[in-house]
Structure prediction request, 308 residues.
Amino acid sequence: MAAAAGRGPERSGRRAASPRTRQGSPPSLLLTLLGDYWWGQTEPLPSAALVELLADFGVSDVAARAALSRMVKHGLLTSTREGRHTFYAMSARGQDVMRRGAVRIVDFGRTRPDDWDGRWSLVAFSVPEANRSVREALRTRLRWLGFAPLYDALWLSPHARHDQALAELADLGVTNATAFVATSPDLPGTAVPPQSAWDLTGLVERYRAFVDEWRPTHAALGKGAIPPVDALVRRTELMDAWRAFPGLDPDLPGRLLPADWPRPEARELFLDTYEQLGAPASVRVRQVVAEHAPELADRVAPFLITRD
Prediction:
């Protein structure tokens, strides 16, 4: 049954795609730091404080300031000057991007009753091969919504997100698009099942690698305090690593998952480690902010994720 559709020529004056930050890059680290310790705050922070915090991750002053300028250019930050000093704050757009990302991170992987009705959301579209930047941005956005390509221009999700998918397509100027909601019949063994759009075997390996990488940090927390700088770096790297999973894992209904699905173990490890690192990491952020803007130091607080 068709749920929604839109047709027409692609707009020639399309709005620029929303910027995406590469995992571990200075802009990605900045977004993570602001989301983790400056959540909901509107007061601008001194550029010197942000540059010093990035230095804990081995980012040079030049690269840090270039990242700040780039984020202003993309509308994620606003900048102001007071004498010789520059200050940065999240823009309304940046706050919206951060809020939507936080909602997805908080909700991702929660235990839910397996009440899936067997219906799939599908979107089909046409994007000229020459529009490579649009095609790449579209893939990123659809995967973040939990879609995957069954075929090149036919993407599907077990969740009712076709309206969101069409909105992303429209935002990129793609109006040759149609969305459907459908069920899959019993298929012969030679047919391709819908869930084959995802590399579940690869996901299992990634979750297990995540657990193997972060279990030692979790164990170290139980043996004694981790120094503030180390806690800040590890907690930021942990969030940066975990937030990649919502773009890879479609959160398929339980009946479609392989046995011994490792995500619950990985999520519990993430939540517990992230929570325990919060206090010592905040000490480091508060220390840096106090050095450059003492009146703002008390506003630093760790963002925590409520468990199921």
About this structure: The beta strands are 2-6, 45-46, 77-82, 85-90, 119-125, 148-151, 154-157, 177-183. The longest helix spans residues 263-292. The two ends are 34 Å apart (CA to CA). The chain is about 45% helix and 15% strand.
